[in-house]
Structures are given as structure tokens and as C-alpha cells.
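User: Could you check the structure of this?
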Amino acid sequence: MLAVITAVAICLVIVNGFGTSTTIDIMQSRNNLDQMRAHFLARSSLNLTELIVRLQLRLDTASADFQQLQGVQITDFADPLMAAFGGDEEQVQAAIGLSMSQTKGLGASIGTFGVRITPVDGKINVNCGGSTAVGEISLVARSLQSLIYPPAFDPIFEGPDADGWRRDRRTQVAAIIDYVDSNQSRIEIRDDKPPESTGGPEDYGYENLKDQYKPRNNKMDSVSELKLVRGVDDRFWTLFGGAFRVWGGCKVNLRALDDAKVVAAVISLSAKDANDPVLRDPAALWAIANLVITAKQFGFYFVEPGEFATFVKDPAAAFAGLAGGGEEGQPAAPVTGLPQLPPGIKGIELDTAKLNQVASSGTIENYQVEAWGEVNREPFMPARRTLRAFWNQKHVNQQSRNPQLTKTGAWLYLREE
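Assistant: Sure, the predicted C-alpha cells are below.
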């Protein structure tokens, strides 16, 4: 009897161990399957994104002949459009008015996918700090200074950063430029003259950190690399991280503005009078900058820099011009819901020549893309794969073996998470 009990106990241990290992193998294989499905859902989203941005390029080209198409950005509605192809049954129903059972090829039965397309031409290109042209280095230095100069940001520069490093605004700008420039000499930031090398070494203490590393001294591939710059801690990144990019030209595209801080920087750099009362009043400047961001919802696309200057000079008059006209001889009907300037705040006059030096206005060329695929696995967490990519409308791949890959427009950056 003891021998039988011992044998049964041993068998139970063996069977239990076998069952446990088998269950783990099944869950691992299921996880791998779901991760693979999520990956291909994300790839499907990325392929549809390429279709959308190429269609956007066609609209931008056609807008030269059809003014009604000027400023139309279908990329702003990419995620709702994507729901018709990669959404669940409820999302497909909301997108096209038909259920998945009544259609073919719409919706995703094994999961969902979506995309977020963000034009980035309206941000500051920090990689221009690594240019060999003095004018481009000066432009990014002035843009960064104007971005962080408002007194509201004083607490960031009055104390040390997360690593205990103390800096003022000029030192912070110099640290960003020195991180991407190709030389080893420290740059000096001045208000009255373009930045120039001091001849001294770049000494920011990267080698004294707990996790030591060296400055890149080259252009960055991703804006997230900016977090490695000395002084760019979580507080700095939370406030200013959305104002930077690393691709495209050095000027800010007025059609792609989406950050009030960048708008305020552009206005400060191109003001006709450096002592304008609006520049001396942060609340007034911030109010005008926010009106510029809001203006896109009411059809202001700033196709030309002059349109931006006219709007900023008198935002109240620009919004008043949106009043709908009635019959001939009848007064225009007012449009409700229009934003208003706070009492006592007026616009600011810009110098067109200065504006053209720091900003441009035209076709948006660069898009930051976040495409994801997700597989539901109740009661567990869903399996999700995210593709972060960067698209340039004018880049041409140098692929001679496959003519299909030499078309205008290409992915410049792709990372899967």
C-alpha cells in the first residue's frame, strides 16, 4: 500500500509538472500568435496611411488650379477613415452606415487598427543646429530662445534639472546645439550676434552621469533622442517636447502650426517693433497664439505668410470677416461660436521680411505617423504593436532595381514597439 501511494504521489507530481509546462507553452504560443496578428494589423494601418498621404499630395498639387482645395488636410481625419477598414463592427457601422456582415473587406475580425498622422513642419527643427550654414544655426538658436523666454518658464531655469545640473536659458540652448553639431567646441549664444564657437571644449558632464555616454555630435534620427541632452529632463520635455522635430527644412511651416508656444516664438522673432506692448505682455501674446491655433477650425490655412501677418495684426477683424452674407443689400448674419480676444488686447504688426526668414507657408512635406494594431484577449490585456514612422512627401528612394520604389514620397524612419 505504501508503494502504491508513493507511486501515485510521484505520478501526480509528474502529471502536474507536465500540465503546468504544457499550459505555459500554450500561453506562449498564443501570445506569439496574437503579437504576430497585432504586427500585421499595424502594417495594414501603415499601408493605408501611405495611401492617405499620397492622396494628400495629389490634393496639394491640384490646389494650384482649384482654390477650393487649398488648405484641405485629409490627414486630420485619418483615424475616422481608418475605422472603416480596421475597426470593430460598431466602428464600421458608425463610419459607413453598414455592418460588417453587409460588406466585404471592411473591418478587422481578429482585432482593430488605427493611426495618428501629425504634420510636423510647424515645429522647430533642432537638427538645423548641426548645419554647416551659420544662418541655419542662428535661426534654430533664435527660435529656441524665443520658445523658452516667457517668464512663466522661469521656475525651470531657477533650479537644477533632475540630474542636479544648473543652467540658464542661453546655456540650455547651447547644450541642444552642441549635442547635434559635428565639432567638439562649445558654442556661445548671444542676443546681438549669431552664435559662434568659443574655442573651449563642450563640457556638459555627460561622462560624470550614472549612465555615462557621449554627445551625439551628429544629426538625430528621432526627436526622442533630445531627452539625452543635458537639461532636457521630464519637466522640460513635458513643456517643450511637442515643439521639436528632426526632419525637414529649418523654417517653420505656418500651415502646420499646432503649438501655441511655437506660434508665440514666430511672432516674437518677426515683430516689426521689438518693444511692441504685446511682446511685453505674456498674457496678450499667449492669447493671440492660441487664436492662431483655433483659426484653423474656421478655415484660416495661412497659404501665404502675408495671410498670417494680416491675421495676427487684427485677429478680431479676421474673425469678424467670417460673418455669413445674406441677400444683396441685407446685413451679414453674425456667426456664433467665434473666439474673441480678451478685453484690452490688440493684435501685433509683423515685419514680412523677418517673417519670411523664420517661417514659410506651403505644402506640408513631413508627417509623423503612429500606426497601431491591437488584438483583444479577454480577460487578459490586449496584444498591441505600434509602428512609429516618419513620411516625407518629396523624398525619392534611390532604388534602381525596382521602378515602383522610385516614386516621390518615402518612409524615412520606422520603429516598432
